[in-house]
Amino acid sequence: MALGIGDRAFVAAAGFLSGVFAAAMGWNIPIIFGAAVACAFGLLVLIKKISLWKEFLFFGVLMLFGAFYYHWRADAAAAKINIVYNRYISFSAVVSDEPQPSQKFLILTADVQPPFAGTVKIFAPPTGDYAYGDMLQIGGIIAAPDAPGGDPVVFSPKIKIISRHNGFWLREKLIDLKLRVLRNFEAVLPDDQAALLGGIAFGSKVNFSPELKNAMALSSTTHLVAVSGYNITIVILAAESVFGRFLPRRKTFFISIALMLLFVLMTGLQPSAIRAAITGSIALFAKVTGRVYDIRNAIAFAAAVMVAYDPAMLMASVGFQLSFLSLLGIVYLGPPLKKLFRYNGAGFLEWKECAVTTLSAQLAVMPVLIIAFGQFSATAIFANILILSTVPLAMFFGFLLAAFGFISHSLAFFCAKLAGLILFYELAMIRLFAGLPVPVPIKFDSTAVVFAYYGALVFFIALHYHHGDKKI
What we know:
The protein is of the alpha+beta class. The protein folds into four domains: 5-80, no CATH class; 88-167, CATH 2.40.50; 175-228 and 304-466, no CATH class; 229-303, no CATH class. The chain contains 17 helices and seven strands. It has helices at residues 5-24, 29-46, 54-80, 169-188, 191-202, 210-218, 229-243, 249-266, 271-289, 295-309, 313-316, 318-340, 351-373, 380-388, 391-404, 409-434, 447-466; strands at residues 88-95, 100-101, 106-112, 118-124, 135-143, 153-155, 158-163. A five-stranded mixed beta barrel has the order 1-3-4-6-5. Strand 3 (106-112) and strand 4 (118-124) form a beta hairpin. It is globular. Residues 467-472 have low confidence and may be disordered.
């Protein structure tokens, strides 16, 4: 019996992603081929169709294609770069993303203009008044990227603004709208509450104090301020509740997609937002066409599309890794953990559901967090359990306050008081668990340890599904 279209599409996406991963790891063709056979065998065991030997070949071919695709795109991208490294030069560049503040710098991503070409990260003074679309004249020394897929960097350069509004006009308007909303938050909420609400609702980290950033890092709750499926779901539900009342289902579908894309563009094209938008679009399409929505295939398709656009993202973007690993953890670790803990209901305020969801996501992303940030506290699980159940409500009030801020100061003030209670609680939990760190003793200092860890998780999942009837 051959695989269905959905299974075949999943195997294709998995093979392509495995090939890109192998190439990014620097594996040669024999190693990639051996890994392809091993991964294909494991995959067919998981989907309980080991007799389909032809899928070994199919997976292997897609894995080899993914490896060649990675190198082809890397060579093509390198050919477009014309930057002089390690020598003082003067060049012009256009800021291509929203400035990201840090404790010591304002980090600007900019596209270098002719006669040079490429993208650079500019570490500018934190007090600079720079924005998306600014044309800058820069003098400094550009250092080569320290890892494949990274951007060249310029520290403490001389910067002069030549002109403004050189970016995509629609994105400029959306960013301006977001900044006005954030200012409305600041007008009716204390600083940290306004910053946290802006992060939860729009993924903004502009107004975060160093103390709050550090507390969120120590409590492993930084993911709360990344745009996710929660945000996209609210956008979709709002669109359907407003336009679905008087428009046909198909027109409502297109309006929902358009609003979702505008929201993703406004929030800065974060990997988690793009992933949520792709999977959300697939879910909407399935709903409007009457087809079955398969979360497994949606995840694989979203990852394949994003990696096809930028193969370096798979290994270079921590945000991409955290977004997909957390979702995979929730989808696949959640059911066996519920079985292990004899889950028999969501519990008061759905605390059991939050507990399983949090544990699943945290187990899936723990190696990445330790490798990227050097720390992971075991108490983060409890912090997230106590906070996550309140996030949808905070997000709802955030969107409501964003609308009321342009309509009525009184309504905005009343909404802010309700939101403030939730935000006060969330900040209290973040600070409490930031002061109670319990470092995880595992050091993921080698590829073998990482593979062993995820292999153990896959084995745990396989044990559960071996006796069940769910498709993975």
